[in-house]
Amino acid sequence: MKILFVIDAYFTHNNGTSISAQRYADELRKRGHEVRVLTSCDEQKDNIYSLPELRIPFFQGLIRKHGFQFAKWKRKTIQEAVEWADIVHCFLPFIMEAKTKKVADKLGKPATAAFHVQPQNITSSLGMGNVDWVNNMLFRLFRNTTYNHYGHVHTPSQFMADEISSRGYTAKIHPISNGIQSDFKWTKVPKKPEFEDKILIAMVGRLAGEKRQDIIINAMKYSKYGEKIQLVFAGRGPKHKQYIKLGESLKNKPIFTYLAKEDLINLLGQCDLYIHASDMESEAISCIEAFATGLVPVISDSKLSATRQFALDERSLFKAGDPKDLARAIDYWLDNPEEKAIMEKRYSESAEKYNINHSITMFEAMLNEAIEDQKKA
């Protein structure tokens, strides 16, 4: 197939949707498909249809802090890209993707969509993540302007499939994990000298309000191991300076870093636990990657997060937004190393079903189904 990926920001490495798009493109090419990308880009690159950046007054700084950028609609480039493709896959519910869908419809090309962005991801950055009427309005807006114009929609989890189905989204919904690469597997390596006398705990993800790294920092005040724990946060984001300041009261100041894949795997291989404190997630691949390497995760039980589905039992859950309960869960696993060792193996084995190869097979099936539907129309 000739597959066109349509996504505002493809080249960023601090955005889960963009990273998933990059990985899917790589894996599809390995299977013999041609994949090109319609995205915002400052220069001409192979397999890329380049669009200029759309700058949003007043909000541009915040958008960039989140590692994102919007693409301008340029009809000539969109037309050229869609004419090339056998099928178009739009990752986001924004203006450029909507314009591309209209061009695909006009040219009789099949198009599918993905639901990666929860409304709460947007509203949280504006301090309104828990304002239900605003989030409900965005769900309706996405439904009416975007997703109900498609016959097939990919969600990265059953949680998100159920969420949008309950809100009147009429497309056939395909819950398919974004998938983890085979590099993320059982990994145990000696701790670096600076970590040898410390308990190493990590979280991977954007430093953003809804990810709740603040809960992890605050939990150190309540854990009996707090003075031995070294926190490592792998990611970038608008809360960086705030979290540095929040962590100044800890004996071991949190480490904030951004790591390439090989270095991330090495870090996870040294860790004692993994925490995922986010209030809202459509999946959280970073959590799967962590327990695939053999880490027991401790996960927020937030009703707005799909990540809680990965907990194999209640011992790996804590009350959303509650640093005391997170400390309780951390202390339980550190108090019981034998149980932790057993569960490390079980978690690593449970990650096998999220291998990206399974996901790509299901994604191919969705695309083929959409192509066949178009032929029948």
Per-chain topology:
Layout: E1 2-6, H1 16-30, E2 34-40, E3 48-51, E4 53-54, H2 60-65, E5 70-71, H3 75-84, E6 87-90, H4 95-107, E7 111-114, H5 119-124, H6 132-145, E8 152-155, H7 158-165, E9 172-175, E10 199-204, H8 213-219, E11 229-234, H9 240-246, E12 255-257, H10 261-270, E13 273-276, E14 280-281, H11 285-292, E15 297-300, E16 304-305, E17 317-318, H12 323-335, H13 337-350, H14 356-376
Helix pairs in contact: 3-4, 8-12
Low-pLDDT ranges: none
Number of strands: 17
Compute the number of helices.
14
CATH class identity of the largest domain: Alpha Beta
Q: Which oligomerization state do the chains in this entry correspond to?
A: single chain
Q: How would you state the average pLDDT, rounded?
A: 94
Largest sheet: 7 strands, parallel
Content of β-strand: 15-25%
Q: Tell the overall outline.
A: globular
CATH topology of the largest domain: Rossmann fold
Instruction: Please state how the strands of the largest beta sheet are arranged side by side.
Output: 3-2-1-6-7-8-9
Taken together, the total number of domains comes to 2
Give the distance, in angstroms, between the N- and C-terminal Cα atoms: 20 Å
Full CATH superfamily name of the largest domain: Glycogen Phosphorylase B
Rg result: 21 Å
Outline of the structure:
This protein is α/β, with parallel strands linked by helices. It folds into two domains: 2-179 and 355-376, Glycogen Phosphorylase B (Rossmann fold, 3-Layer(aba) Sandwich), CATH 3.40.50; 193-353, Rossmann fold (3-Layer(aba) Sandwich).
